[in-house]
């Protein structure tokens, strides 16, 4: 008989995770417009403001992994969640760009802590025999939020809803998520012997090759979640770009039906390789939309939303596999470190994607930014198959 995966605590942490990401991503695609209209920021400044959040998150990640491996995990998780939620209220009061940037940095620090905390707590409360499946559903919660959140934010913005109300909606979502997080029951964690401070207490050294391939993959993803609406406007796609995120969410949901179970059967590297092929194809097609629309605007609209579906399937397939890969390279006492290394790799790429996407668009066009991103996914695919997969099979602990 299978170990039980669905418990009240597991459901509460899924809800907490979804509402956290939904609140954050609801605001994310609206921020470029907000920064332009309210503060008069140019594209490069916009990229800088957006990326300082991610830079702050990745700076705290290694330390948060160490803290979660050393102290009680749930109190740290709840503290970070509370600070993260509170900052949305601060955005409502930020009257200058400098204050807004300061709040973004604090928001990034709390996000870095709360996401590592959530990922570590969910591993603690699920049976190890169903870890791939459990992480798959957990990842699905934030991936769906990362898809329908931007869609909702863009719909509200296009409908003429003010920025104050959009920020309030994000605050309300995270408050509800915090309430769910308080209801999660975690197993007792006995005090651990504190090892001497060393680099591998902050970064999972065995996970660095996988981290490099994940980083290259997340650069174009960061460009997509932040700039795809502006790209569509630039090439004059005549459709609501909010649906791009809807189709992306649908692709992620479909991929979860099979990817987590394949991971639990040990097919981790095969799952990632298959997802990489799909993502490489999708990003080259996204960059080509600027030429397709000159040929047939209706065909381009269909291709644009098909790309969203394929990206959702590709990334949705890879997320639980990558997460499990990092966890399998670490002893149980370093779960927090493994999770923080996984998320740090992802966040570094997202931050670079925001900066380079804005910069390339400033000196050229968004399609050139996506072409650059597509080339990086090819490098990631080759590096994963030639270096990361063999390294993982030699060093995995379970």
Ordered list of secondary-structure elements with their pairings:
Blueprint: H1 8-27, H2 31-39, H3 43-70, H4 73-93, H5 97-124, H6 131-158, H7 163-182, H8 208-234, H9 242-256, H10 259-264, H11 268-295, H12 297-328, H13 335-363, H14 366-395
Helix pairs in contact: 1-6, 1-7, 2-3, 3-5, 3-13, 4-5, 4-7, 5-13, 6-9, 6-12, 8-13, 8-14, 9-12, 11-12, 11-14, 12-13, 13-14
Domain Major facilitator superfamily (MFS) profile: 9-392
Transmembrane segments: 12-34, 46-64, 76-94, 100-123, 135-156, 162-183, 203-221, 241-259, 271-295, 301-322, 343-363, 369-386
Keywords: Membrane, Transmembrane, Transmembrane helix
Explain briefly what this protein structure is.
The protein has 398 residues and is mostly helical. It is built from 14 helices and no strands.
Q: DSSP helix count?
A: 14
What is the β-strand count? 0
- Strand count, sense and closure of the main sheet? none
Order of helices and strands: HHHHHHHHHHHHHH
Shape: globular
What proportion strand?
Answer: under 5%
How far apart, in Å, are the first and last alpha carbons? 21 Å
How would you characterize the overall build of this protein?
- It is a single chain.
- Helices cover 81% and strands 0% of the residues.
- It has 398 residues and is mainly alpha-helical.
- Helix 1 (8-27) packs parallel to helix 6 (131-158) and helix 6 runs antiparallel to helix 9 (242-256).
- Pfam families: MFS_1.
